[in-house]
Amino acid sequence: MNVFRILGDVSHLLAIIILLLKIQKSKSCAGISGKSQILFALVFTTRYLDLFTTFISVYNTVMKVIFLICAYVTVYMIYVKFRKTFDSENDSFRLEFLLVPVTGLSFLENHSFTALEILWTFSIYLESVAILPQLFMISKTGEAETITTHYLFFLGLYRALYIANWVWRYYTENFYDQIAVVSGVVQTIFYCDFFYLYVTKVLKGKKLSLPMPV
């Protein structure tokens, strides 16, 4: 465990807390992609099946449980508690465009051909593209609420910090996971335009718009 990993986890958790507080305080999930949240819930579910087979540390177990609970609470708030405020018309990204290739790639490129390993690989690949429905929704509506951009910023920061974590582990532990690293880099690239707009617009008090051709 190193500082980049811990900061990455904190950033990830902070992003989720910001999102949940935004929804609860405003009693609205307007501007939030339910499809992205479903994908994140699927990511955590398939990645953390090792909770039933392997104990790594108390920290690891607690964080996994928290992320799982928060993911499903978010989905519940969007599709059940505040479903009347859900913008289904603009949350129109076709999930099969992500799920089909990710599933196929998980079977083709993995560390070992076992159920748990394939599901873990699936979760890594899926996480790299799970934010696309949210970015697509922003591009379709033309703007995003400030609190939503804060959520996206910390989510992107989490991935950037994990890249630093992998670099650190490579030089200190000679550890390198090609699947995780490549997927993490791809995911971070998706945030690059957003990071630029966040710094040049949101931090200056302007609204953010994110055109993204799909």
Automatic annotation (TrEMBL):
GO terms for molecular function: ER retention sequence binding. InterPro entries: ER_ret_rcpt (IPR000133). The keyword Transmembrane applies. It is found in: Cytoplasmic vesicle, COPI-coated vesicle membrane; Endoplasmic reticulum membrane; Golgi apparatus membrane. The chain crosses the membrane at residues 62-80, 120-138, 150-168, 180-199. It is a multi-pass membrane protein. The keyword Nucleus does not apply. GO terms for biological process: protein retention in ER lumen; protein transport; vesicle-mediated transport. It comes from the Eukaryota. Keywords: Cytoplasmic vesicle, Endoplasmic reticulum, ER-Golgi transport, Membrane, Protein transport, Receptor, Transmembrane, Transmembrane helix, Transport. One of its GO terms (cellular component) is endoplasmic reticulum membrane. Belongs to the ERD2 family. This is ER lumen protein-retaining receptor. It comes from Aramus guarauna.
